[in-house]
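Example record used in the benchmark description.
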Amino acid sequence: MRLFFLHLQKCGGTTLIAFLDQMFATEDIAPYNHFGSREIRLKPSLMEPQLAEAKSYQFLRGHFPYSVFEMIRDDHLTLTMLRSPLERVVSFYNHWVRASKGVHPNETSDTLSLKKCISELSMDEFLQCEHPWVRSLFNNGQTRHLGGLPFSDDPTPLLLERALKNLDAFDLVTISERYDDSLQLICSRCGFLPPEKIQILNVGEHVATVDTLAPSTLHILREMTQYDEILYSRALEIFEHQYSEIGVRSVNVATSKPTKHFQATMEQSLRGIGWHAREGATETEFLRWTGPSCESTVYINLKKGFNYQFRLGIYGGMSSHIINNSKVIANGVEHHLKVEDDIATVHGTPQKMLTADISSDQIASRGETIFKIVVPETESHHGQDSSVDDKRQKGLLVRSIQVNTIASSQHPWFRFWPRKKSA
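Model output (structure tokens):
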């Protein structure tokens, strides 16, 4: 599967990328989400050297200009996601209100001036101010992106016509307000296992909501999103048609062959939900936090008729209480995860292994066994230290997952869970 996701800002793409990233090994994911400077992104000819390399990856995702789609569409299944225009603009406003309260290194003069505007003006005044970023980010932003509009220009009926035509060219058009159905559509077309539920990421405090806006603010927003409303209506039509073609049929999921020895590290693809995006412990090693909920799943196709040991290799957790009171549920049967002594030190960091024995009757008789890793609570680094910006709710920091037959898992060399690249 070769997939390209054009991520429109504030349309739910962060959550979708976190899910899709799990379906690909890190070596198959393009290591960038844009192409160089704004000058390069507005001149397709300057992107061609990077695009030649980008086409070799199985998964590309990011805030690319539409011109990238045009140059890569023949090599990948193409996907985008749109959002209700009013909800999107209010979300963008909330984002910048939060951003205005923080200080980050290397901020440009445009960023600083925008933060100054949003902190000093009312919402109505801000939306009508002359700052160029207000125009480009808030004024028909989805139409601008899909129509390929330069940063400083204003949207026109011709731009809307071009955006509608470009939208029709995508293989999959999904809708943020229909997240579960959108995932069902994507999984059906791509052969991925549909998640039981989706964990929404990158959600901050709501300074404003559409339901509580003053009539004057709603009037301004409707003026600013009139083209986006037409584009969104068309996206809904396309989505409904594509979704109706799968109906409620079972999804044909391409699963791996049954095995007695499952071993995965976090740079590999992971079938499951309830995981934050990968983080690099080093340039070659990746980790994942469980969260934001207390439950994280992984689907594993195991051979039947054997007893297994489930082994979770971790760098640590948000607290010792979380580490010592975590559980794994195998096909509905709950097991306490026993904490082994530090088994190894990698790059100076002690490693722990959480283990549980799983009897053969808890292995699915057909298809994949669902393992649910359950922590008693999740916490954020910001909650522990208000000077830290990271507000993600997290549980365990995971390096590896193993499930092996009991006899094999006791073999000494398995205790150090050597990392093997998947074929």
